[in-house]
Every structure is written in structure tokens, then in C-alpha cells.
Write the C-alpha cells for this entry.
Amino acid sequence: MSGTEAKRLVFAMLDTDGDGIVSRAEYAARAERVALASGRTADDPKVVAARAAGEGAWKSMDANGDGGVTFEEYDAWAGAEAFDTVCEPVLGALFDLADTDEDGALTLPEFTMLRTALGNPPRNIGTAFEALDTDGDGRVARDDYLASIRAHVTGGNSPMGKVLYAG
Ligand SMILES: [Ca+2]
Ligand SMILES: [Ca+2]
Ligand SMILES: [Ca+2]
């Protein structure tokens, strides 16, 4: 899968209403959905952290500051550098919301809760978990999860990304 193709799939997931623009509200709703699904309260420090990381990421993506992120903006922005400086903290903060026992890993139910809240088709989530849980212990580590998404959005090989973002 090419980098642009991979980015299109991620963009399509972010653009919930499919109007070709990721609005601030659409992006912010991601953290709110995960917070709600994880049963956390609005003032939970982890929710506050995820919200702040998301807000910063969205501002960084909206390069021309017009209040919407087009695919062209996203395509020009997304990549290894943006992932390391902006996306990783956001995705890590969302992972932490789902990691209720704080052991740095997600079980299948936790992973399913996280990725369902982020808008992936349910049928892809179990397959993505299997692709990530390479040692088959039923847990997916935070670092492995983040590295796999990084590989996906930078055009590298990501068995998880391939199934997770498939249509
Ligand atoms: Ca939209
Ligand atoms: Ca814009
Ligand atoms: Ca855990």
C-alpha cells in the first residue's frame, strides 16, 4: 500500500460525515468517544491530556487555519515527522484511556473498545489485534501499537494497519 493510499484510508476514518473535510469537532469527538467508552469522567487527568493532545494535533494539521482540514492539507502534513511529534502523543493518550489497568498493554476487549470508538469497522478490529499480538499472549503492547500505526502512515509494512483501515 502506498503512503498516499494509506493516508486516504485514515483520512476517511477521521472525516466522519464524509464531506471531505475533517472539522475540529470531528477530530475532538474522537477523544470524547474513547473517554465515554472507557467509562472515564470528563475531569479524569487522562481525558484532559487526550483532549489537549488532540486539540494541538488538529491545529497543526489545519495548516491554513481556516477551521477545516482537507485531504490535501492532511496529505502534505502526515508523515514520519508529524507522526513522531504530533500523532504519537495523541494516539498514545487515547491508548492510555483504554488501558484501564495501566499495564501498558490492551486486551482484545480493551482494543476493541478503543478502535470501535475511533471508527474502525468491527469486523477489522479482531483481525488487527491478531496481527499485532505476534506472541499470542492476548495482549497488545503500547509501543507495538504505535509503531504499527507509524509504519502504516509512513508507507511501511504494517499488517495491522492494512486490516484496521481496510474498507
Ligand atoms: Ca467532515
Ligand atoms: Ca484548512
Ligand atoms: Ca492493560
Notes: Residues 3-164 form a domain with the Recoverin; domain 1 fold (CATH 1.10.238.10). The chain is about 65% helix and 5% strand. Residues 35 and 47 are 6 Å apart (CA to CA). Residues 62, 64, 66, 68-70, 73 surround calcium ion (ligand 2) (CB under 6 Å).
